[in-house]
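Job type: complex structure
Entries:
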Amino acid sequence: SQQGEEDPQALSIQEGENATMNCSYKTSINNLQWYRQNSGRGLVHLILIRSNEREKHSGRLRVTLDTSKKSSSLLITASRAADTASYFCATDAEGNTGKLIFGQGTTLQVKP
Amino acid sequence: SQTIHQWPATLVQPVGSPLSLECTVEGTSNPNLYWYRQAAGRGLQLLFYSIGIGQISSEVPQNLSASRPQDRQFILSSKKLLLSDSGFYLCAWSVRRRGKRNEQFFGPGTRLTVL
């Protein structure tokens, strides 16, 4: 079953603008993660936010988590053309298997 | 440092032919290992995961199988490929530990086209 759902599905902005992507999930989580995927490549882990955290920063990335609404957002500030990629949220599944459930992703295009 | 290798990078196979994709991890021991498939423009579907040698869990019924003959080797196989097996296959690993951090680290992927 689908756990994470991102919106929008696609986003196109100009370089220098901020990009915001949202993720909703259905069940209780221990943490929520965001990943980036350049076209035709593997995913790269960006940031992890624990269920008891509300906001986390890493460079130009800002992630928020609202467990009451079962939602998270990823904000990329001062975007660059190199930020063009697909972004996925992932939530952990039950047990200690380390399994993650990925959303369908948001495709971000940053125009120079 | 840890690295993960996948090969081949691209593969074109006829329907009904066998498949073997290999994934190896270096620089870590006892990793959890995962195989995902990604359809064009879509998210990742978990196919198999493994928490140890010979221990494979299948997430979805399908035409594929997985094996883990060594601690850091994960193989995805099929006896007879179907057109629907086409896609981008990703291998990933994570540290096997209790606790709440379980980032996954991905290989470069294999683009499989079944004709």
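Summary: Chain B has a mean pLDDT of 92. The radius of gyration of chain B is 14 Å.
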